[in-house]
Amino acid sequence: MGMNTRTKPSRRFLFVGLLVIVGASAAAEPLQVNATAELGFLRPLYHDIQIGRDGYRFDYVSEGGQEILQPWVRLEVETVLSGRHEFSFLYQPLTLVTETRVDRAGGLAIDDVVFGDNTPLNLQYGFDFYRLTWRNRFLDNGTWQLAAGAALQLRNASIIFDGFDEDGVERRVISQDLGPVPVISFAARRQGAGPVFFEGTLDGFYAPVRYLNARSDVDVIGWLYDAALRVGYRRDNGPDPFLSVRFLGGGAEGTGSDRKFWTQSREEPRYTWNNLNVFALSLGARI
Predict the structure, then answer these.
(1) How far apart are CA 255 and CA 217, in angstroms?
(2) What is d(CA 270, CA 257) in angstroms, rounded to the nearest whole number?
(3) CATH number for the domain harbouring residue 98
(4) Which domain holds residue 246?
(5) Number of domains into which the chain is organized
């Protein structure tokens, strides 16, 4: 039983995000540009999902193979204009693929599909996202830097259950979604006289998705949090290394819209509960 993290970048959104940063960078001086990369592992702490009002609330950690450490990657471009305006563009791959088996008498009901007991079950939980952030640095006294602002995140969700019913017929449940997510963003940095620095970031939101997407046929509440602490070492030449501890999570509850794409499993709107919470530990560098 294993799981890996796969990358599904939206090249168009990535290109537009980079153009925004480059264009803003050209409009003001002085200018500071950095690229940051992290590599480490993640561990889902709590992760469950329910598709359909009568569906089973499935625990990915205890039932779906997400009980082990998995690779973690995080890529970000950061720009500071005039020492005050912070812009960043983040790409965060977060696609978890697992293989397990149904171990439930009477089978496992996901949406309107029942996967047979003691049959193989292949799972994909994809929640890659892209985030464009602006923060205003309202305090910078040489030791402390504090900033607050807003971000626009693009969720790119793809959730798949693939297995067999009790008669051995292959069955599949698919739920996919693409849409914008507004985010409130805070950041703090402490740099003393020595080379060691400390950083913290907090991003999050809690809101009704129907108003964000301007869709009257969607009745869903969504939430997101992304909190991290870093300790790093500032170098005069070369990249600044750091250690990062991060807690990331989000989810949604409610009834979505009618089917518009063949990849969706059913035509009528369905109820969904989805709650993901992970811990990530990584080493990174800012160039």
Answers:
(1) 9
(2) 8
(3) 2.40.128
(4) 3-286
(5) 1
Q: Global pTM? A: 0.84
76's tokens:
């970000």
CB neighbour burial string for 43-74, b if at least 16 within 10 angstroms, e if fewer: ebeebbbbbbeebbebebbebbbbeeebebbb
- Residue carrying structure tokens 């805070």: 186
Which residue, among 70, 89, 62, 64, has the nearest Cα to 78 in the 3D structure? 89
pLDDT in tens, 61-109: 999 999 999 999 999 999 999 889 999 999 999 999 999 999 999 999 9
Rounded Cα distance between 134 and 285, Å, is: 21
**Whole-angstrom distance, CA of residue 285 vs CA of residue 76:** 11
How far apart, in Å, are the Cα atoms of 268 and each of 115, 187, 233, 260, 263? Answer: 21, 42, 54, 10, 13
Place of tokens 């980079």: 18
User: pLDDT, tens digit, for every residue of 206-227?
Assistant: 877 655 555 555 577 889 999 9
